[in-house]
Fold:
Amino acid sequence: MSNPNEFFRIKRLPPYVFAEVNSRKAKLRARGDDVIDLGMGNPDTPAPPHVVAKLKETLADPKCHRYSLSRGIPGLRKAQAAYYQRRFGVTLDPEKEVVVTLGSKEGLANLLQAITAPGDVVMVPNPSYPIHPYGSIIAGASVWHLPRTPNHDFFAILKRAIKHCRPTPTVLILSFPCNPTTEVVPLEFYQEAVDLCKHHGIYIISDLAYCELYYDGNPPPSILQTKGGKDVAIEFTTLSKTYSMAGWRMGFGVGNPTLVGALTKMKSYLDYGAFTPIQVAATAALNGPQDCVAELRQMYKERRDVLVKGLNDAGWKVEAPAASMFLWAPIPEAYKDLGSLAFSQLLIEKAEVAVAPGIGFGEYGDGHVRIALVENKHRLRQAVRNIKGFLAEDPQQVIRELAAENA
Structure:
């Protein structure tokens, strides 16, 4: 039998860098250690009661246990269009410009399968959420990484990539608020991207998963609010973070009808859509009272403030994110040369706190770790105490011990 790593697409995927951190976390928990897991952006609160009630109600209908629609039931597509109208002032045709996906991750990956061919180039900011570059690689495309750090002029880099890349890139992927960096951009940023890509015949995929988790009073915009946005862009959103419905796997692709149509056709061959009661409950989430969204936003803001203040008081200088459910924390100076993976391993061993190493999001993320706000304030304060104790140790001695352990 062949080694599974010899398969064409599998061998193009690098080792999963989070696996080592997860392995150490499991090892410590197996021996009874209380590891505080701030690594994965996995919401710890339940879905709103009225959404759960609608799911239970719909389950009683025998007809809802049959195959559903891969493109999404009409009521849900209309609800998503109504959401875009009231939130962004964007008008969408539920029949041609909205498709329901099994979470935004599935939709993005299947769209890349539909619109790229081997040798096509997808431009992806670095660091970025792993599905953005690796969804492209799985589809058989090539990835052109665009450094996205404070030290890089993004549009100068983008223009240079378009000028020198052969063939001309097919797609640009953008995601703001950004996972992992938490960066937000103004509408003017999107307009410049749309104008540039429209001029060169490049499609844009926008990942807007964290648009409802914002803390400075300025709701993040949609790329579809720009002039000509729908001419080149499709945008993915999800109910995972907005309503704490991560396990429900409910997302949407909206915008450019050609891209929406391509994804709709691809999905018609691959799935029958989410379980109908989940789609009905998702409709209730979008159409129902939105107090739950504001309450969730406030909860994450309070957690953010606790963690940011605690880490800064402990000597780890971090900035408060304007959006998302993460902190993008630079590695403390004394440990900077270790890199994010080794530092993440130290945090587990010395502080019993798990975080995500920045290298998992691209080479330009290696100077940081991502910390998720997925524990309550009491647990976050405990994490801060543990980290403070670790940072009080002699860094040189800690590094020598680590070197000896890995020798």
Observations:
- Residues 88 and 222 are 7 Å apart (CA to CA).
